[in-house]
Prior knowledge:
eight-stranded mixed beta sheet
Amino acid sequence: MVDPLEASIQTGTSAHVELKDYLRILRRRWFTIVLLLVLTVGAAAALTLSATPQYASTARLFVSTSPADTSQAYQGNLFATQRVSSYADIVKGRQLADRVAGAMDQGFEGSDLVGKVKAVVVPETVILELTATDPNADTARDIAQTYADELSQMVAELETPEGSDTPLIKASIVDDARANYTAVSPNIPRNLGLAVVLGLLLGVGIAVVRELLDTSISSAEDIEQSTAAPVVGNIFFDAAATKKAPSVSLDQATPWAEAYRVLRTNMQFVQVDSPTKVFVLTSSLPAEGKTTTAINLAVTMAMAEQRVVLVEADLRRPLISERLGLVGAVGTTSVLVGKIGLDEALQPYEDTGLQVLTSGPIPPNPSELLQSQAMDRLLNDLRERFDVVIIDAPPLLPVTDAALIARQADGAFVVVRHGKTTKDQLAHAVERIEAVDARVLGVVINRTPQKRKGSAYGYGYGYGYGYAPDPAKLAAQEDDAVAEQIEANQAAEPGPAPTVEPAVEKAIQARAPEAPVDEEATKRPAKRGDSLAPAAAAPPAEEPDEFAWLSELREPAEETNAGLDVFSSAAPETDPLFGPSPEGDDDWRSSTAERRLAPMRGEDPGWPEFPIEESDMGVNDVDPSENGTGTTGGKGEGKRRRRRTRR
């Protein structure tokens, strides 16, 4: 397939040239056009600004005759019209310039004034305009006026017949020269406008020439001119991704990684009826990215839970073992010559599930090994073990190894480098494969620019814009999740953290070693206002109940003081305050425990009010008449609770 623009130029016609062809050139070669435009405008601006300003002044003369009657007037007008052109030529002469230089007496030479004055005849009139230019406006006025005076005298001398004092034609000054202090040169808008037009014409012309001379592959249309194989993938260039391990960079949501996923998807439609697929990845010349493409494609397929093996068949310049950090001493060569078995030669690549068969020792006869029966048996063995077999083969144009392997495989994919591989190189590479009755399954364009240039590159839906999650949205979702977890924890908690009553302090210290709390919390004495929650809380999903230690205290124990009665709920049959538990009331125990914990939270427990008798006071009880001093128990920390008995 021949480019329509190139074909039209070769044939000398423009019948097949369409507007889209020129637009395609403008889009692909826009940098050249813009560069030449900027250079042209810059040069014009520099010349314009560096030029010396010039000022102009104009004087006008009227050429006429002196007729005696009307008929002679008409003939005289024709005569004057013919003469005025001759007078314009006299202005360019050296004789008039010398007369003007002498009359001005400003140090000018006649040769200096010749180029400063221009004579123009107004069309269909007998008016002659003399315009003088000079860097000084006053000097320009003097030159124009002196030229008009001297020309008028010179015409009178030339047109006066011998023996007569009256000239037949005279040149009369109708407009004297005046000083104009506005520079007429350089004209900046005009110069820059012309530079823009010239720059665009020059840029477009060079862009068209470059397009005709450039045979590198940069679009799907260029590939169609060399082969009928489809474009199955476009691998974007990402310098940051190539510096990372394939297992890391391909697991990220980047346009580069997505390009390999698109390639993996497209390759699933190749050889659909075959349960096992053996593909060869090769290129026209070295340094086009075939090995990198083979590695990343194999890792991408392995990440999709496919049984994939990567075979290094480039026995001349092997690179896979070095890039993946594997052992290169054993591999394909070792298996082909029978030194080790296939199971011993296969190496796993990290935790991707990919199996790699490196090249092994470099043999002196790679072509003979690759077309041997041992290679055929190796491929058959790999077919039985794996779903996909990817073979990294040498370039097609320097050696014939890749073509030999492609004949034994299901087909070959040719990797081309954007802007480097030429159409002729791709065409010759395809011919090498087809010459051995092998198939070209597709073409992969490598190192395509992130931004779209020219038309579409075939398969794929990305042209450099990624589809990764928005980091801001991820952060917002994490914040919302944390807030919801905090609200859930607060809703699950019965209330504010309880504080330890003085009467219970000894009980906590005595029973704390048996409670499932933090060891550091049990070593320090509890103080009023301290929380009973563990010192280091676990994650919300596994956070223990902050009142779990109460289960250890709910055991039958000897009452040493009235304060322990608050926690004595171990006896299920009889409550010390409310007596026997009601039968069938499952919530009785939980409601009673909640009432006992209410004072620690500063809440009203809701106990029924009963009169307190003197006999009801224990040894640690405080008499109301005493201000914080017990009758028998010593000094306390305030009024302590009295035991109440249910009546």
